From TrEMBL:
It is an enzyme of class 1 (oxidoreductase). Residues 32-193 form the Glycerol-3-phosphate dehydrogenase NAD-dependent N-terminal domain. It comes from the Eukaryota. GO terms for biological process: carbohydrate metabolic process; glycerol-3-phosphate catabolic process. Keywords: NAD, Oxidoreductase. This is Glycerol-3-phosphate dehydrogenase [NAD(+)]. It comes from Gymnopilus junonius. GO terms for cellular component: cytosol. GO terms for molecular function: glycerol-3-phosphate dehydrogenase (NAD+) activity; NAD binding. Residues 215-355 form the Glycerol-3-phosphate dehydrogenase NAD-dependent C-terminal domain. The active site is at 226 (proton acceptor). It holds the Pfam family NAD_Gly3P_dh_C. It catalyses: sn-glycerol 3-phosphate + NAD(+) = dihydroxyacetone phosphate + NADH + H(+). The lineage of its organism: Eukaryota, Fungi, Dikarya, Basidiomycota, Agaricomycotina. Belongs to the NAD-dependent glycerol-3-phosphate dehydrogenase family.
Length: 399
């Protein structure tokens, strides 16, 4: 649905009329939702929405998951102890038919970043921009070959109008704990604030709070970057370092994330939110994090290939570190911890040597935002047909 509206509140920004695409109006209850991905997080979110009485379809690319799930309401590979609500139907392994895609209110993507482009390319011919479902993305990563954020992947595959309507959910949210209904909060952001509001309304539950914002670039960078520091924190624990060291990594990691994000063109405040420091703290301090586990096992001396082969699940931080390194180099930002993680993962650097080198760096100013002016975000906004005035608004507004 295309409308003209002002994304910015007239009292705290210049009043601008922008042509934006909106998703179809959402029902007050019982939304029809199609979840792409039946891994830990796709299954978890399908369960969460099924639990809230929505009509849920979950696409799995593995036939055995589809068959097993529809027979027993359990996922044989992920969250295997969990019994799923009966109002979830697994579909696949072929792409869902366009009739299903066009009949749903919501499309939710829980697919690792490296596989998203191919999935969206296949899906695009079935999307009707005048009858667009609410589009929600929960992946936390950067595409390796292009350094693209998900926003750019959506723009490349589905067009700028659809990317502007996309909503991103990120924050401290282990799948296993959500299905146990442990109190959890997340950040929900979109360039189109009304879309973020719709996504928040869909997910909000007494045990699951949503906080909305308008800095999807910052939310995306937060989710991707925290995975790199979770690897660093796990590595430190694996080497036998203790609480002081972990606290240092989390705090200096937050500082690096904020510098990278700010130089990229995101709001520095976004990194103080749930998707930023919230998720950083969670994944840097729990062995339930796959990224932390990769780091921990590296610290114990295992080889990366062997760890990935036996992890049983995706650690987005590993490929994302490659994209982060390219972004840091392009921006000229000082991010020594992220650079060290890259060296350990991909240049064969010894983990203990990496820590020693980090500790031997000369003293430096503790907190300093880079002076660079957000060139990558400016390029991305231009691709989406948004301008730098809007970027500046984002940088100076609350998320
Ligand atoms: N597990 C968690 O607690 C959370 C995960 N996330 C994010 O959600 C995303 C998905 O993660 P998980 O479900 O946990 O991963 P997972 O490792 O549990 O599952 C991977 C999923 O990717 C699918 N997949 C594998 N190869 C594919 C391909 N070529 N094309 C399409 N799909 C493919 C698998 O079928 C499976 O559904 C990641 O970006 C992750 O960072 C975000 C928040 C929490
Ligand atoms: O992002 C997560 C929880 O918020 C999951 O982290 P891992 O991908 O490291 O397991």
């Amino acid at each position: 649905m295309r409308t003209l509206f002002s994304r910015f509140h007239p009292t705290h920004s210049r009043f601008r009329l922008i042509s934006m695409v909106h998703s179809k109006p959402q029902p007050a209850s019982n939304s029809k939702v199609l979840v792409f991905g039946a891994g830990n997080f796709g299954s978890c979110l399908a369960s969460h929405l099924g639990d809230s009485q929505h009509e849920v379809y979950m696409w799995a690319r593995e036939e055995k998951i589809v068959k097993h799930f529809n027979l027993l309401h359990r996922n044989p590979v992920y969250l295997t102890d969990h019994s799923f609500p009966l109002n979830i139907t697994a579909v696949g392994p072929q792409m869902p038919h366009r009739n299903l895609i066009n009949s749903v209110d919501v499309l939710l993507f829980a697919i690792p970043t490296q596989f998203l482009r191919a999935t969206l390319q296949t899906l695009r011919p079935s999307l009707d921009i005048d009858n667009l479902p609410l589009l929600i993305f929960v992946n936390k990563g950067i595409e390796v070959d292009t350094n693209a954020l998900t926003l750019e992947i959506i723009a490349d595959t589905c067009g700028a109008e659809i990317a502007k309507a996309a909503t991103f959910i990120s924050g401290p949210s282990f799948a296993k704990e959500i299905v146990e209904r442990q109190p959890t909060s997340v950040s929900v952001a979109s360039f189109t604030e009304t879309e973020a509001d719709k996504a928040a309304a869909l997910f909000h539950q007494p045990h699951f709070r949503c906080y909305t914002g308008v800095d999807p670039i910052g939310i995306e960078l937060s989710g991707a970057l925290k995975n790199v520091y979770a690897i660093a924190s796990g590595m430190s624990d694996g080497l036998g370092f203790q609480n002081n060291t972990r606290a240092m990594i989390i705090t200096r990691g937050l500082s690096e994330m904020t510098c990278i994000g700010s130089a990229y063109g995101a709001s520095p405040l976004t990194f103080l939110g749930l998707a930023g420091v919230g998720d950083l703290f969670l994944t840097c301090s729990s062995s339930n994090s796959r990224n932390y586990t990769v780091g921990y096992r590296l610290g114990k001396g295992e080889k990366l290939d062997a760890i990935i082969e036996t992890l049983g699940s995706i650690a987005e931080g590993v490929p994302t570190t490659k994209g982060v390194k390219k972004i840091i180099d392009e921006l000229g930002v000082q991010a020594p911890i992220a650079s060290s993680v890259y060296d350990v993962l991909f240049s064969g650097k010894d983990t203990r040597a990496a820590v020693r080198e980090l500790m031997e760096l000369p003293p430096s100013r503790e907190l300093e935002l880079p002076p660079t002016a957000g060139e990558p975000a400016r390029r991305l906004l231009a691709k989406l047909g948004l301008d730098t005035e809007q970027l500046n608004h984002l940088k100076h507004s609350n998320t």
